Amino acid sequence: MTARRYAVLKIVMLLGLGLYLLYKTFSGTLYFYISDRFTWLVLLGGAGFVLLGLAALRNLLRQATPGHSHANNWTVLIVAVPLLFGVLMPDRPLDSSALDTRGLTTNTGLGGGAWSNVELSLPSDQRSVLDWVRTFNFASDPSIYTGEPADVIGFVYHDDRLGVDEFMVGRFAVTCCVADAFAVGVIVRTPQAADWPSNAWVHISGQMAVGQFDGRSYPVIEAASIKEVPVPPQPYLFP
Amino acid sequence: MNKVFNILGLLGLALLLLAAFLGMQNWAVMGFALPDQFYTLSTIFLGIFIEAAPFLLMGTLASGFVEVFLDRDAIQRLMPKNALLGAVAGGLLGFIFPVCECGVIPLTRRFFSKGLAPATGIAFLLASPVINPIVVASTYAAYGWGPVLFWRIGLSLFIAVAVGLVFALQARPAQLLKPTPLIQISGASVDHPHIAPAAPGLGPRIQRALVIAGDEFFEMGRYLIAGSLVAALLQTVVPQTALLAVGSGPLLSVLVMMALAVLLSICSTVDAFVSLAFVGSFTSGSILSFLVFGPMVDIKSVMLYLQVFQRKTVLYMVWLVFLFVLLASVFINLNIGI
Fold first, then answer.
1. In terms of Cα–Cα distance, which of B291, B213, B286 is closest to B255?
2. A110 and A224 share a domain?
3. Residues A123, A222: one domain?
4. Cα B332 to Cα A96, B153, B249, B291, distances in angstroms
5. In the prediction, which pLDDT does B192 show?
6. Can you give the pLDDT at residue A46?
7. Measured between alpha carbons, how far is B61 from B107 in angstroms, rounded to an integer?
8. Domain of A167, in residue numbers
9. For the segment A221-232, what is each residue's pLDDT rounded down to a tens digit?
10. Which of residues 200-239 of A touch B (CB under 8 A)?
11. pTM of the full predicted structure?
């Protein structure tokens, strides 16, 4: 390849990366990949790539004979890989197929720190799956929640340790990007548990009760209604 | 003729991309059913890349501007000659150049090409992902004013300076580095006609810094992408649940958390928040090892190190950091318990 063609390729890739990041920021699917805290960073990055692409374009246009650059060999094409993934693969948030390696916790130690927007004093029917799991962590006696109304959204996950009339309603919690995602879940009890396929997004309302999990007493949601819902615009919870 | 070919080629590429974008976003429509793991891999890979690319970009921009606006003499003059002082100065340099673990690597390479001493450069490289205002603030936000914050800063600085000093013993420091064909400013523009020689005006110099930054992004970006792909692949294959299940005991917990830090390959700016999830179920020494080892060594940063140093140097560097962190964390577990 000639030096000029490398230069053109690099300009296309820089502008492509910039536009891709900007497009993600404005289309809302960015939340499938990173926490909403870092939107500004991606916006800045997208603008930066466009700027570099324009500067390289200006440089190319002003020079009759572009010499060699040290990043001139076929490996620069690797930079197109994220673009290809981004364009060819449908945007799909992590789902229960990722649980094979990540597992799902019903009890998280995410309690410390001055930094947290999980509110323990929320009314019980406004608590998310993560809020519930965190509250369980503070309770020595699971029966203290009995009778409280619960209203949560999440995906269905069938765990081997559960009874036939139970499934988990899970969510991924993402601190920075999906690389650090961990799944949390609350047990749901319903006679139709087996009819709900894994990965289906559901809206569950019911009341808290006490059940068994892994040989100990655990709070469960006694479901009064289960409705299938579309994937929420922010599929992850940001602790 | 060549020009026509170029234009046709580009048009073809653009059409192909458009078709791909419109038609193939849903593989299922085409009768394709990729395994679920592949979607997970794609999502995690893009997550790591989207998070890290802006940081790498900031690093290459800083490097471009250092190349154009900072001359060799200034660095020689400002940096202490003494190896110990140089290493300490390198360890604290992150407060002046707040770049995190992706961005620090192109910047360090640029400093080396400007004649920075290896001890100083290595200390900067290892310390600055933690010793910078942003990471200190995020650690403070996660853990508050307490032992975790102090130990993280102290231990990171100590290890960075110590490893820097070990490499200062090398008689011919240039041998540590990969021979760099970096674009240099003085008299080198004859060899590099693709970048206009720095004209005196501010505008042309900024333009030149941007062009250098763009080229450097391609040099380093390749390794960031390869590293992110490997990390995403490992995450979809290696069960973290099994890893975490073995994690108790003063030694084993440290090893597990160090392995997790490498596996997750997350930015040091946010790893403090991620580590909160393990407080309580893991020993305090192991949490600290996650916070000190992770910023210095993970899959993508090691790939990037190989662009600056000889393979052997990287090997020794990673090994030394590993030993230091392991010893310190186990010691804390057994004797102090923060």
1. B286
2. yes
3. yes
4. 38, 15, 12, 14
5. 45
6. 96
7. 9
8. 96-228
9. 999 999 999 988
10. 239
11. 0.81
Query: By the CB < 8 Å criterion, does B76 face chain A?
Result: no
Are both A190 and A79 inside the same structural domain?
no
Q: Would an 8 Å CB–CB cutoff place B274 in contact with chain A? A: yes
A176·B266 Cβ contact <8 A: yes
A168 and A71 co-located in one domain: no
Query: A74-83, B96-105, B323-332 — which one is most confidently predicted on average?
Result: B323-332
Yes or no: say if B202 and B214 are a contact pair by the CB < 8 Å rule. Answer: no
Are A77 and A115 found together in one domain? no
A75 with A140, same domain: the answer is: no
CA separation (Å) from B157 to A22, B15, B41, B93, B100?
Answer: 37, 52, 35, 11, 15
**pLDDT at site A110:** 46
Residue A112's pLDDT band (boundaries 50, 70, 90)? Answer: very low
Contact A236, A31 (CB under 8 A): yes
Using DSSP, state whether B2 is helix, strand or coil.
helix
Domain ranges of chain B: 41-336
Task: Please list every residue in chain B whose beta carbon sits closer than 8 Å to the beta carbon of residue A108.
Answer: 277
**Which of A135-139, B68-72, B104-108, B263-267 is the least confident region?**
A135-139
Contacts of B158 (CB under 8 A, 6+ apart): B324
Count how many domains chain A has: 2
- Asked if residue A106 and residue A61 are part of one domain, the reply reads no
Chain A residue numbers with beta carbons less than 8 Å from the beta carbon of B134 are none
Residue A234 lies in a domain: no
Query: Is position A32 within any domain?
Result: yes
Angle, helices B311-331 vs B147-168, to 10°: value is: 140
Are A126 and A187 within one domain? yes
